[in-house]
């Protein structure tokens, strides 16, 4: 019996913890990525209304639908919606990639008996920078700076610099560093 309920007023954080835990109990492992991961790490800087999950391990695709339906989500196009909350869910059935790198690590956060699998802070910054590098998404640059500042002890800038160089994006990485320095000083 599923004791997890999506309640009116649940914010993005509450929703993703509940969804991830319910799916895990149903045999589906998902990892939070994209702007929603940045919202978890730096909520004061960046807020997303959609939760982007990558399926990491799934015993059966029907488990995903069964669990989400049990939580009150309905499929609408490529997304899942719930009448009690504004957060939409998106699930991608692919390997976790940031640029040409396959990501095989993630963080596990625990809160109030719930579990959330999420990109590491370093990979969250890389993910947001990928949107900035290739889609010129300035809000993604702001999110990358916010996560870097909020989780500075956990973000490996040397690893990110090496990745940006491999991806041929050193100039935009330097723009990120400049923005980050101004962000942290002001």
Could you please describe the fold and organization of this structure?
There is one protein chain. With about 190 residues, the protein is an alpha+beta fold. It has seven helices and nine strands; from the N terminus they run H-E-H-E-H-E-E-E-E-E-E-E-H-H-H-H. The chain folds into two domains: about 10-120, Beta Polymerase, domain 2 (2-Layer Sandwich); about 120-185. Helix content is about 45%, strand content about 25%. The protein has a five-stranded mixed beta sheet. A two-stranded antiparallel sheet has the order 6-7. A two-stranded antiparallel sheet has the order 8-9. The chain is globular, with a radius of gyration of 17 Å.
CATH fold-level assignment of the largest domain? Beta Polymerase, domain 2
Fraction in beta strands: 15-25%
Major sheet description = 5 strands, mixed
Low-confidence stretches: none
> How does CATH name the architecture of the largest domain?
2-Layer Sandwich
Radius of gyration: 17 Å
Distance, first to last CA: 50 Å
Q: Give the helix/strand class.
A: alpha+beta
What's the rounded overall pLDDT mean? 92
Percent in helix: 40-55%
Number of domains: 2
For the record, the CATH class of the largest domain is: Alpha Beta
The count of β-strands is 9
């Amino acid at each position: 019996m599923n004791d997890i309920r999506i309640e009116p007023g649940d914010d993005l954080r509450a929703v993703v913890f509940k969804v991830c835990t319910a799916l895990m109990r149903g045999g589906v492992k998902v990892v939070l990525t994209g702007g929603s991961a940045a919202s978890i790490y730096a909520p004061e800087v960046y807020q997303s209304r959609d939760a982007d999950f990558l399926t990491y391990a799934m015993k059966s695709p029907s488990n995903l639908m069964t669990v989400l339906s049990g939580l009150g989500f309905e499929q609408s196009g490529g997304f899942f919606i719930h009448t009690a909350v504004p957060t939409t869910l998106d699930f991608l059935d692919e390997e976790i990639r940031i640029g040409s790198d396959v990501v095989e690590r993630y963080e596990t956060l625990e809160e109030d008996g719930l579990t959330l699998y999420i990109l590491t802070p370093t990979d969250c910054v890389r993910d947001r920078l990928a949107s900035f590098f290739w889609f010129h998404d300035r809000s993604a640059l702001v999110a990358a700076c916010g996560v870097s500042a909020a989780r500075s002890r956990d973000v490996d800038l040397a690893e990110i610099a090496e990745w940006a160089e491999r991806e041929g994006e050193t100039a935009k990485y330097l723009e990120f560093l400049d923005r980050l320095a101004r962000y942290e000083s002001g």
